[in-house]
Amino acid sequence: MSEIKNKVKSGFFSKLHDKYRLVLMNDDTFEEKISFSLTRFNVFVFFGTLVIFLVVATIYIIAFTPLKEYIPGYADFNTRKVLRDLNIKADSLEAELRSKDLYIVNFRNIIEGRELVEEITDSLGNKEFFEISELTRSREDSILRAQVESEAQFTQMIQEEYSSTEITGASQFFFFPPVQGIITNYYNSAQKHFGIDIVADEGSPIKATLDGTVIFSTWSLTTGYTIGIQHANNLLSVYKHNDVILKSEGSYVKAGEVIAIIGNTGTLSSGTHLHFELWFNGNPVNPLDHIVF
Question: Is the Cβ–Cβ distance between 262 and 274 less than 8 Å?
Fold first, then answer.
């Protein structure tokens, strides 16, 4: 029995190396055109290599070419990466916006003499609101409204008189011009332009107008690199659109000391210049009324 198996095995392996001739002939003239000398082993090796090459080529095309996007159910890792990056950027922008909102609120609190806040809370969340038409006005309510309106008119008159005295009170200080240049945009409270724009050469130093302490030294999307100095007697000076800030928060500066370099930063800037604001007791004043540029 074992001899028969050996004969079968030896016969099979010996036939792998048997030579065969593949001839291509002209059917009409029986002229031999092409002939190949082949063995079964060579044929197996050729077709095996061809199959492996086709499999490897298919895997490469699917894995490393855009063709994989047309295969149903195949995940696109680049799309996932882009979505993840966009999600991270959106979170960063949201955090940056909240930080800028907090900066604006604290800046307003500084000007109005209020306490600083550490974070902005959604005070309107989870509250119920009613239409005004649903509320009924009582007699007591009408009397209270009349009293509040009369007090508001009286308060407005006092504020107008007080603001006029504030402006004259600011004249007692000797202000140092922050930069020498050409004024291109003037103070206009009606247009909410609470300062002046001064154009100077690129790289010009920005100087402190009075002795004081730097209360904020930061960057914002609209005003770029901005620095604010708190002076004596509730005076505040603000310098916007700088290219470089040379003083940090808490630094004490002297009048005429260089605090920044003129620049063109922020979306509200249209060229190299300094936007300079002067605030007295929480109210903006025209710098040209007190400083000679």
Answer: yes
* Residue 37 exposed, middle or buried by CB count within 10 Å (0-12, 13-18, 19+): exposed
Q: In which domain, by residue range, is 18 found?
A: 2-64
Domain stops at, among 47, 64, 81: 64
Give the strand pairing for 252-253 and 235-245: unpaired
Kindly give the residue spans of alpha helices, DSSP state H, lying in 113-131. none
Pairing of strands 196-199, 274-280: antiparallel
Q: State the Cα angle at 252 between 263 and 103, rounded to 5°.
A: 60
Tokens standing for 187? 């103070």
Query: 208: domain CATH number?
Result: 2.70.70.10
Q: What is the pLDDT of residue 96?
A: 85
Nearest-angstrom CA–CA distance, 228 and 217: 7
Tell me the β-bridge partners of 24.
Answer: 34
**Residue 82 lies inside a defined structural domain of this protein:** no
User: Is residue 57 domain-resident?
Assistant: yes
Of 20, 38, 64, which residue sits at a domain end?
64
User: What is the count of structural domains for the chain?
Assistant: 2
Does residue 120 belong to any structural domain of this protein?
Answer: no
Asked if residue 99 belongs to a domain, the reply is: no
- Residue written as tokens 């009369």? 150
Confidence at 7, pLDDT banded by 50, 70, 90:
low
pLDDT above 70 covers a percentage of the chain that reads 73
Give the confidence band of 127 by pLDDT, cuts at 50, 70, 90. very low
Reported as a pLDDT band with limits 50, 70 and 90, residue 164 is very low
Task: Indicate the burial class of 198 (C-beta count within 10 angstroms; 0-12, 13-18, 19 or more).
Answer: buried
Question: Is residue 2 over pLDDT 90?
Answer: no
Task: State both tokens at 246.
Answer: 């040379």
Task: Please name every residue paired with 216 in a beta bridge, in sequence order, or none if there are none.
Answer: 228
Segment 245-269 shows an average pLDDT of 93
